Amino acid sequence: MTRPRTRSRSSKGEAPAQSPDALLLRCAPGLARVLRAEGRYTGVLPPKARVDFLWQRNHDLLFLPKPPRFPRADELRVAEEVHRVLAFGRYKVSAHQLDQLAQGLKRRGKRWRIAVSVDGKQFNRFDMGRWLSKELGRRGLRIDESAGATVFVFCVEAAYYICVREREAAAVRGRDKRRAEREGSLPPTIAAALAFQGKPKDRDVILDPVCGSGTLLAEAGAYAPEAELYGMDTDRRAVKTARRNLAHLANTSVEPGDARELDLPDGAVTLTLANLPFGKQFGDADGTPALYRGVLAEIARTAAAKGWRGVILAGDGEILSEAAEAAGLAISRQFTVRVRGEPASMALLERAS
């Protein structure tokens, strides 16, 4: 996918006019456009509002200079972090910005630590941290590495964003209902991205045939609380974990079962969400093609004749494409994301015409 360049309306050395409520959103690499779509869907980001895309090594960033409001607790589920931007610009932080920054931070507390991340050659992380610590110290703030509050500074090429973090992914409404973790569980923000792209509705019958600890179904349920949720997994311990994690949702059923032999009638499902495991998780390290073919064939069999959607995350996009074609499914969109540092393919499926 072609990434648009970051745009700026200020010239070198000038601080742009800025809203005190500018936001910076962080998400997993590859999900910036999904997060923008979610922002527009919720109204946090008006359709024609300016959005700047920025790219870090381990995150995508979205800069919203003039959002109409701060996101509610159940919004922007794809975001890993939501930051309030106190100062931003290009090349050089002005004295006026430093004065305003110090005043804003004092209202929140006097002891702060500074965390700087740099992508590009314009800024040096250590120099920026030392310089900002000195300038804020001169303006009456105590900069202390042991402080509980943090000022985050994101430098991407010539642009800088000085922020305070307002929300992390775990604070999103409903995620406190998760009762048990399981090694290798899908991060909830990735699960939210899959679920959001499936456009879940309250009248949907939603299936995750490899549900693990239930993260995908939990996120789908957050978007569509009245939907029917069905999960299956070969691991009975995972089934028990998923049942605990989904206990707060109505119309939910999680049972032991093989994704290649689903105990569901033909055409029963309107939305299928899945994070496909690798073959080794089924006892065959070289079995990924056969596994994908078997799972996709059952997904196709249980897919409703009209209105069905599927969103799949897989380790091998090429094998997934071949399995989808063999099952009579078409991929309408496919792109790469990074999950815990590893590349994966996210695909949106529909019935082939």
From TrEMBL:
<dbReference type="InterPro" id="IPR029063">
    <property type="entry name" value="SAM-dependent_MTases_sf"/>
</dbReference>
<protein>
    <submittedName>
        <fullName>Putative RNA methylase family UPF0020</fullName>
    </submittedName>
</protein>
<feature type="region of interest" description="Disordered">
    <location>
        <begin position="1"/>
        <end position="20"/>
    </location>
</feature>
<dbReference type="GO" id="GO:0016423">
    <property type="term" value="F:tRNA (guanine) methyltransferase activity"/>
</dbReference>
<feature type="compositionally biased region" description="Basic residues">
    <location>
        <begin position="1"/>
        <end position="10"/>
    </location>
</feature>
<dbReference type="Pfam" id="PF01170">
    <property type="entry name" value="UPF0020"/>
</dbReference>
<dbReference type="InterPro" id="IPR000241">
    <property type="entry name" value="RlmKL-like_Mtase"/>
</dbReference>
<keyword id="KW-0489">Methyltransferase</keyword>
<feature type="domain" description="Ribosomal RNA large subunit methyltransferase K/L-like methyltransferase">
    <location>
        <begin position="175"/>
        <end position="332"/>
    </location>
</feature>
<dbReference type="GO" id="GO:0030488">
    <property type="term" value="P:tRNA methylation"/>
</dbReference>
<keyword id="KW-0808">Transferase</keyword>
